[in-house]
Amino acid sequence: MTDTLMVGVSGIRGIVGKDLTDEVVGRYARAFGRWAKGRKPVVVVGRDARESGPAFERAVVDGLGSVGCGVVKVGLVPTPTVQLAVEHHAAGGGIAITASHNPIEWNALKFIGPDGIFLDGADGARVQELVGEDGGGGGRTGKVTTDEGAVERHLDAVLKLPAVDVERIRKRKFTVALDAVRGAGGPVMRALLERLGCEVAGINLETDGRFPRSPEPVPENLGGLSTLVTRAGAALPRSASRSIPTSTGWRSWTRAARRSGRTTRWRSR
Predict the structure, then answer these.
(1) Distances (CA, A) of 264 to 83, 84, 110
(2) Are 88 and 195 in contact (CB under 8 A)?
(3) Strand-pair partners of 14
(4) Residue 119 CB: number of other CB atoms within 10 A?
(5) How far apart are CA 240 and CA 113, in angstroms?
(6) Could you give the CA distance from residue 113 to residue 23 in angstroms, rounded to a whole number?
(7) What pLDDT score was predicted for residue 123?
(8) What does CATH list as the number for 155-259?
(9) What is the pLDDT of residues 209-220, one digit of tens each?
């Protein structure tokens, strides 16, 4: 283990090629697969737009399969979509391959329990124990399937929230400035806003993971977005984001979607 590999309750995070390699990712995926099998031998896997994502997705899928877990791939999606897909498929857990707002050279694995919530202390500690006991794979290879409807279900769930007055929002005809930093949230947030009748003025909506700036949504990183807000004459309903019109607002909408269903707990990592 390198000095900068960060191991936490709900996953691991590190610099790609230094801390986080295919071998490390596969080892942690096998451990999580063994843990998940005690609940149901199916794991949902999704990733963000980082360039290392496809290779790490393969390592995760191979690692899970080697310990007998089936895999449901939801593709390139926001992390909350993975969480909701775990619940939808009644899976034993989920792995989101994403480093969130960390710099471009990082990536991470986030472990999700069968309730769609990131692992707590006890479960996270058990996965760490299983990493230490890793003897490789070699078991029956699990079946791999693809779920192409995960994002659409997520959008539908948000639009059906009692707190979201869709018709009232549509009547306002908001113009919304959106900067997704070339991450996973761009197409999804655009689709949500357009279904709410908003005109979207967007920058960095491509999903190639080539961040044009640090993805952390702090004032010093939002100059381009601020310019876009002024140029587009944008306005934003207050509940759509954390006071700024970025793709981070997807978490706020999703939090409400989860609270309206059977799962009421939420932890953000």
Answers:
(1) 13, 12, 20
(2) no
(3) 107
(4) 23
(5) 27
(6) 23
(7) 96
(8) 3.40.120.10
(9) 999 999 998 999
Which pLDDT score, from 0 to 100, does residue 244 have? Answer: 40
Catalytic residue among 52, 100, 241, 247: 100
Q: What is the largest CA-CA distance in the chain?
A: 59
Domain ranges of the chain: 6-148, 155-259
Average pLDDT over residues 99-118: 96
C-alpha 154/C-alpha 162 separation (Å) is 15
Whether the Cβ atoms of residue 192 and residue 168 lie closer than 8 Å to each other: no
Phi, psi torsion values for 95, nearest 5 degrees: -125, 120
Tokens coding 70: 């089936």
Q: Is-same-fold flag (6-148; 155-259)?
A: yes
The CA distance from 84 to 181, in Å, is: 23
Cα separation, 266 vs 243, whole angstroms:
20
Separation of first and last alpha carbons in the chain = 22
User: For 221, which DSSP code?
Assistant: G
What is the CATH code for 6-148?
A: 3.40.120.10
Statement: residue 260 has pLDDT above 70: no
**Looking at residue 204, what DSSP letter applies?**
S
For the chain, what percentages of helix, strand and coil (3-state, to nearest 5) are there?
40, 20, 40
Taking residues 12-16, report their average pLDDT. 97
100 is catalytic: yes
Quick one: tokens of 46? Answer: 């999704």
Whether the Cβ atoms of residue 98 and residue 69 lie closer than 8 Å to each other: no
- CB count, 10 Å around CB of 165? 13
Q: What span, in angstroms and rounded, lies between the C-alpha atoms of 34 and 138?
A: 12
